[in-house]
Design brief:
This protein has 287 residues and is of the alpha/beta class. The protein has one domain (5-255): Spore Coat Polysaccharide Biosynthesis Protein SpsA, Chain A (Alpha-Beta Complex), CATH 3.90.550. 34% of the residues lie in helices and 24% in strands. The protein has helices at residues 36-46, 61-67, 71-79, 83-90, 109-114, 117-120, 140-151, 212-218, 229-239, 257-270, 275-284, and strands at 5-9, 30-31, 34-35, 51-56, 97-102, 125-128, 132-135, 154-160, 170-174, 181-189, 200-208, 242-246, 250-253. A 5-stranded mixed barrel has the order 8-11-9-10-12. It has a two-stranded antiparallel sheet with strand order 2-3. The longest helix is centred in the last third of the chain and has 14 residues, at 257-270. It binds 1-O-phosphono-alpha-D-glucopyranose (G1P). The site of 1-O-phosphono-alpha-D-glucopyranose (G1P) has 15 residues, from strand 11 and helix 9. 1-O-phosphono-alpha-D-glucopyranose (G1P) binds next to strand 11 and helix 9.
């Protein structure tokens, strides 16, 4: 079955970016001039996703407004002949059918994904986390969707992160082979270095079968006292095959301040309209 639906959980408080995230959703913080969540929506659209569900929460209506049309603004831009600006305002949803649901309690990523149960129904679906922005030739989620079409099983997007970083991620124990697709034997959410089965981390992209919802309903609180998606995936792996796919592309952790700065600098350097001027400025700094 083709993967047509994607879910972006965007309900968290974003405490790592306080005070910026006191009144502005962290997903709306711009990398150059584009909110982080729009890059994720663009990746979904580029991969052929048709329906997108964004899980929001209280105080995060700016996300909903961003993906809506802005009639007053767009009328003024149209009258003023500001075509480029009008395009920038109008072209945010990239043809996706976008809907929203609110998670009304902060119970963790697993609970947020469970809020997508009715939207997803009985189809495989993509999960894309807003903190992870991936650049590269092929959209990251599209690579996982391609693998899903071959194996009809859950596929987790992974890359190696180095032993020193394992405690920040869901870490996968998988069967070694030569290709990029590995069968998953186990997973653990944010292990200590000494308990980590490998340094292969789940980096915010998943294609999951709907059987996960039954697992999520049975998942107890785990790491950080939250209902973890990784724990539900462990249960799922006991019932059916789960694979990890080492995707191609460069991944930025924009949930981390340094990662956010790296993305900002590199995205600005890659821009046709800004790259040269910004490069000259960086060269002029006495570092
Ligand atoms: C979440 C997941 C974790 C995954 C990570 C990727 O953690 O729980 O398994 O490795 O995203 O960024 P978070 O960063 O939201 O704490």
């Amino acid at each position: 079955m083709k993967v047509r639906k994607a879910v972006i959980p965007a309900a968290g408080f974003g405490t790592r970016f306080l005070p910026a995230t006191k009144a502005v959703p962290k997903e709306m913080l711009p990398i150059v001039d584009t909110p982080a969540i729009q890059y994720i929506a663009e990746e979904a659209a580029a991969a052929g996703i048709e329906d997108l569900l964004i899980i929001t929460s209280r105080g995060k209506d700016a996300i909903i407004n961003h993906f809506d049309s802005a009639f007053e603004l767009e009328t003024v831009l149209e009258r003023g002949g500001k075509t480029e600006m009008l395009k920038a305002s109008k072209n945010v949803s990239k043809g996706l059918n976008i809907c929203f649901v609110r998670q009304n309690e902060q119970k963790g990523l697993g609970h947020a994904v469970l809020c997508a149960k009715n939207f997803v129904g009985n189809e495989p679906f993509a999960v894309m986390l807003g903190d992870d922005i991936v650049t590269g030739e092929k959209p990251c989620i599209g690579q996982l969707m391609e693998q899903y079409e071959k194996c009809s099983s859950t596929v987790l997007g992974v890359q190696r992160v180095g032993k020193e970083n394992v405690s920040k991620y869901g870490i996968v124990d998988c069967e070694e082979d030569n290709g990029r697709l590995h069968k998953v034997k186990g997973m653990v959410e944010k292990p200590q270095i000494s308990d980590a089965p490998s340094d292969v981390a789940i980096l915010g992209r998943y294609v999951i079968t709907p059987a996960v919802f039954d697992c999520l309903e049975k998942t107890q609180k785990g790491a950080g006292g939250e209902i973890q998606l990784t724990d539900a995936l462990v249960m799922l792996a006991e019932r059916e095959n789960v694979y990890a796919y080492e995707f191609e592309g460069k991944r930025y952790d924009t949930g981390d301040k340094l990662g956010f700065l790296r993305a900002t600098v590199e995205f600005a350097l890659a821009r046709e309209d800004l790259g040269n001027g910004f490069r000259e400025y960086l060269k002029s700094l006495d570092l």
